Amino acid sequence: xxxxxxxxxxxxxxxxxxxAASAGLADTPRVTVFxxxxxxGVLEDVAADHDIPLSLSFGGSGAMARQIAAGAPADLAxxxxxxxxxxxxxxxxxxxxxxxxxxxxxxVLIGAKGAPAMADPATLKDRLGGGRLAMGxxxxxxxxxxxxxxxxxxxxxxGIETHLAETDNVRAALALVAxxxxxxxxxxxxxxxxxxxxxxxxxxxGHAHDPVTYPAAALTPAGERLLAHLLTPAxxxxxxxxxxxxxxx
Length: 249
Prior knowledge:
alpha/beta; five-stranded mixed sheet
């Protein structure tokens, strides 16, 4: 015989269980990460199966550092510039002994998918064909700072300086080349790995610019736990899969 009262009690019980589970998920504190734009792909990969929900905010390292210094709530900061991290230390936001690198990177020159390799960087201006070279802002975006260092090292800066398309972050420079708005761009190797519409045409020598490192600093205990997770072999393998270099010694 059908027991309607028992059925109602069962439904109420399951509803209560679902509500409790939902409340538990809602009450789980999110760990907020402010990170350089070039880390988007790998950190989204890490966040997809992390046991604690992550709130990721990406942008130029300078913009991220200034927001944190202005009081933006963050548990972990990961920048693409030791200079901007040093600035956070100077502002009293980060302890002097807190920053540690989580990855390295390399600088590459990219063109449209299938673009031929460039054997001699001296032909860079000719390869632009009247177009502009996409790169981060020369004085504010780390990738742009490194790009200028290489261009000066190679003796190309005077002829290229007036042919630049400077962007607020390196992913914006990548997008200009991917969309065909710029014939060439200077980005990180990890960016080129993440974008199937571009090809690397020249690998920029590492000795021609400052080392590319990603210093991270925890701002809360939750940030410390996440930072320790990012340094585990499994997560470091994900960084490598996304085109990043190992943590420098």
